[in-house]
Design the sequence.
C-alpha cells in the first residue's frame, strides 16, 4: 500500500511539473517560452494601445516606444546626419513599406518595444536581399549556421534567412532571449550586434573594477558603439510628427501590405504568379525574396493583400484548364555533353542556363548533373526533360572540391583559420578575435557558456548596410566613425535547441559559420 501511495504521489507531482512547464509557453504561434523578465507584457496576445487604429503606421509605432532613451554625442551626430540628408531617411522608410507593418504586428503580439521595428533599418536598410561580407543575409542579417539553428533552412531552392516572415520570428526570439539575459535593452542590442559572450565579458570586467556597466560605460568595438546611437537617432526623428512633416518623410499606411496564400508545395513560376496576381515579377520577388530560382517550390506565397482574391480566382481557372503552373523541367547531363549543346537543345542561352541553375560553367557539363531547363520551347525539349519533382531532393551542385587542384599544406593551414558553412571556407571576423571559444563566462552577468557562440557569431556590424544600403539610403555618407551596422551574424541561443547548437559550436569554432 505504501508503495502504491508513493507511486500515485509521484505521478501527481510529475503531472503538476508538466503543467507548470507548459504554462510558460505564452506564445502559442511560435512555441517560444516566455522569458522570466518580460520586455513589456509577453502574455498579452493582442496589443490594444490607442495608436493601433491610427491611419499612419508611424503614429502606431510611436505609441509603442518603450525603451529607455540614449543621449550621447554619437546620437546627436547621427541625428544631425539624417536631418541634413532627409533622402536617406525617406529611402529607409520606403524600403520598409512592404514589411514594417508585419514586423510591428509581431512585436505587438509579443508585447515587445516597437523600437525594434526600426532595427532592420540599421541592420539591412530594410532590404531582405542584403548580404554582408560574412554572408549574413536578410532583413535581420543571420549568418548561415545561426539561421539553421533557428529553423531558417538554406538550399538550392531557397534561403529562408531572407524570408520576411520566418526571419522576423527568429530575430524576435533571439532579441527576447537577449533581453532576458541582460535585463537591459541597450546591452541586449549590443549583444545582438557583437555577441552576448563579448558583451558579458566587457560587463564583467567593469564589475570587477567597480565601474558602471551601462552601454556607454563598457568597452566595445566602434561598430557596436555606433549601433544603438544610430537606432536612437532614427527613433528621435520619427517620434516627432512635426519633424517628420518638415523633412517630407513618407506616410506608411497602418494596414497590412501582404498576405500569405497557401500553395501546398506546388511548383510555380515567378512569372506565372505575377500574371495570375496581375503584378510585376519584381513585386513577386520583393515579397518572396527567399526564392533563388525562376520557379518556386512553395507551401505559401506572399502577395499584395489587395491582389489575393484575383490571384485565387485566376489560379483556380488556370488549374481547371489543366495548364501547367511551370514551364520548367529537369534534365540530366549525359556523358560528353557540352553546356552549349544543352542550352541549344532547350532554346536557352548559355547565360540563361547558368543563371537558372546557379552553378559554374564547368558544373553545367558534369555527367549526371540535374539541370533546370525550359520545356515549352520545342517538342523535343519537353520529351527530353522530366518532372521538376525529381529535383526536390536532387539539385544541381558545383564541381566537387576533389575535382579541383589539391591545395598545398600551407594553403590548407590558412583555410583552417576560417570556418566552413555550406561547404565554403570563410574568414573569421573582427569580433571572433575578442573571445576565446569553449570558455564559460564565470561572471556576475550569468552568461551561460552555452551562449558563448554568440560572441563569435555576432560581429562587426557595419559592412552590409554600407554596401547594400549605399544603393538604398545613402549611408555611405554617414558619419565616418560608424560603418553603418549590419550585424554580420546573429548568435544562436534563445531556444533550447539553439542553445545546444551554440554550446556545440562554441567549443569547435573560433569564428563565424
Sequence:
Amino acid at each position: 500500500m505504501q508503495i502504491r501511495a508513493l507511486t500515485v504521489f509521484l505521478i501527481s507531482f510529475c503531472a503538476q511539473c508538466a503543467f507548470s512547464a507548459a504554462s510558460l509557453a505564452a506564445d502559442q504561434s511560435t512555441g517560444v517560452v516566455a522569458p522570466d523578465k518580460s520586455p513589456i507584457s509577453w502574455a498579452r496576445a493582442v496589443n490594444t494601445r490607442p495608436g493601433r487604429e491610427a491611419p499612419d503606421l508611424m503614429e502606431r509605432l510611436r505609441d509603442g516606444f518603450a525603451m529607455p532613451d540614449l543621449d550621447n554625442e554619437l546620437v546627436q551626430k547621427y541625428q544631425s546626419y539624417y536631418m541634413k540628408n532627409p533622402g536617406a531617411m525617406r529611402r529607409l522608410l520606403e524600403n520598409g513599406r512592404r514589411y514594417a507593418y508585419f514586423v510591428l504586428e509581431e512585436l505587438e503580439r509579443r508585447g515587445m518595444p516597437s523600437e525594434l521595428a526600426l532595427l532592420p533599418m540599421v541592420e539591412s536598410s530594410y532590404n531582405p536581399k542584403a548580404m554582408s561580407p560574412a554572408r549574413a543575409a536578410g532583413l535581420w542579417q543571420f549568418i548561415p549556421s545561426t539561421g539553421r539553428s533557428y529553423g531558417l533552412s538554406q538550399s538550392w531552392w531557397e534561403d529562408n534567412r531572407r524570408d520576411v516572415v520566418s526571419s522576423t520570428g527568429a530575430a524576435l526570439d533571439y532579441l527576447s532571449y537577449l533581453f532576458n539575459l541582460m535585463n537591459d535593452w541597450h546591452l541586449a542590442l549590443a549583444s545582438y550586434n557583437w555577441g552576448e559572450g563579448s558583451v558579458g565579458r566587457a560587463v564583467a570586467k567593469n564589475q570587477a573594477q567597480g565601474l558602471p556597466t551601462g552601454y556607454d560605460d563598457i568597452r566595445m568595438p566602434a561598430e557596436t558603439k555606433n549601433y544603438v546611437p544610430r537606432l536612437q537617432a532614427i527613433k528621435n526623428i520619427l517620434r516627432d510628427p512635426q519633424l517628420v512633416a518638415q523633412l517630407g518623410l513618407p506616410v506608411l499606411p497602418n494596414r497590412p501590405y501582404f498576405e500569405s496564400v497557401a500553395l501546398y508545395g506546388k511548383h510555380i513560376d515567378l512569372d506565372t504568379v505575377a500574371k495570375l496576381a496581375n503584378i510585376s515579377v519584381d513585386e513577386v520577388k520583393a515579397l518572396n525574396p527567399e526564392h533563388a530560382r525562376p520557379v518556386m517550390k512553395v507551401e505559401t506565397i506572399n502577395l499584395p493583400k489587395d491582389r489575393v482574391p484575383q490571384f485565387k480566382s485566376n489560379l483556380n481557372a488556370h488549374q481547371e484548364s489543366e495548364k501547367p503552373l511551370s514551364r520548367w523541367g529537369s534534365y540530366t547531363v549525359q556523358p560528353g555533353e557540352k553546356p552549349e549543346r544543352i542550352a541549344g537543345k532547350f532554346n536557352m542561352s548559355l547565360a540563361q542556363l547558368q543563371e537558372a541553375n546557379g552553378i559554374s560553367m564547368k558544373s553545367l557539363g558534369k555527367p549526371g548533373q540535374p539541370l533546370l531547363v525550359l520545356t515549352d520551347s520545342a517538342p523535343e525539349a519537353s520529351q527530353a526533360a522530366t518532372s521538376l519533382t525529381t529535383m526536390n531532393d536532387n539539385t544541381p551542385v558545383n564541381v566537387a572540391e576533389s575535382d579541383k587542384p589539391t591545395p598545398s599544406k600551407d594553403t590548407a593551414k590558412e583555410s583552417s583559420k576560417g570556418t566552413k558553412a555550406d561547404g565554403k571556407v570563410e574568414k573569421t571576423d573582427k569580433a571572433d578575435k575578442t573571445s576565446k571559444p569553449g570558455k564559460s563566462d564565470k561572471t556576475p552577468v550569468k552568461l551561460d557558456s552555452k551562449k558563448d557562440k554568440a560572441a563569435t557569431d555576432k560581429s562587426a556590424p557595419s559592412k552590409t548596410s554600407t554596401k547594400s544600403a549605399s544603393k538604398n539610403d545613402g549611408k555611405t555618407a554617414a558619419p565616418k566613425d560608424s560603418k553603418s551596422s549590419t550585424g554580420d551574424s546573429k548568435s544562436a541561443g534563445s531556444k533550447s535547441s539553439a542553445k545546444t547548437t551554440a554550446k556545440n559550436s562554441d567549443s569547435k569554432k573560433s569564428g563565424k559559420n
Q: What stands out?
A: The beta strands are 258-269, 295-304, 328-332, 370-374, 419-421, 424-426. The longest strand covers residues 258-269. The chain has three domains: 50-252+429-508, 258-320, 328-397.
